[in-house]
Amino acid sequence: MISSVVASRSRETAWALVRVVTEISLFRNLISDFYQL
Questions:
Q1: Could you read off the pLDDT of 1-26 as tens digits, one per residue?
Q2: Total Cβ atoms within 10 A of residue 25
Q3: Is the CA virtual torsion 14, 17, 23, 24 positive or negative?
Q4: Where are the beta strands (DSSP E) in 1-37?
Q5: What would be an example GO MF term here (predicted)?
Q6: In the prediction, which pLDDT does 2 show?
Q7: Distance from C-alpha of 20 to C-alpha of 26, rounded to nearest angstrom
Q8: Rounded to an integer, what distance in angstroms lies between the CA atom of residue 22 and that of residue 16?
Q9: Global pTM?
Q10: 9 vs 16: CA distance, rounded Å
Q11: For the CA atoms of the chain, what is the radius of gyration?
Q12: How far apart are CA 4 and CA 10, in angstroms?
């Protein structure tokens, strides 16, 4: 029971980290494109 809760919590944390990293990379791409104009 507790192990399943910990597994789901760690999975949510991993997904949150992946989303943050992808959003930061997209944001950096937008900024670089903007500065190249």
A1: 688 988 899 999 999 999 999 999 99
A2: 10
A3: negative
A4: none
A5: kinase activity
A6: 80
A7: 10
A8: 10
A9: 0.60
A10: 11
A11: 16
A12: 10
* Alpha-carbon gap, residue 26 to 16, rounded angstroms: 15
Q: Which residues contact 13 (CB under 8 A, 6 or more apart)?
A: none
Token pair belonging to 15: 């997904």
Return the residue matching tokens 């500065």. Answer: 35
Report the amino acid identity of residue 25.
S
Task: Name residue, tokens 């192990």.
Answer: 3
Q: What are the tokens at 10? A: 């760690």
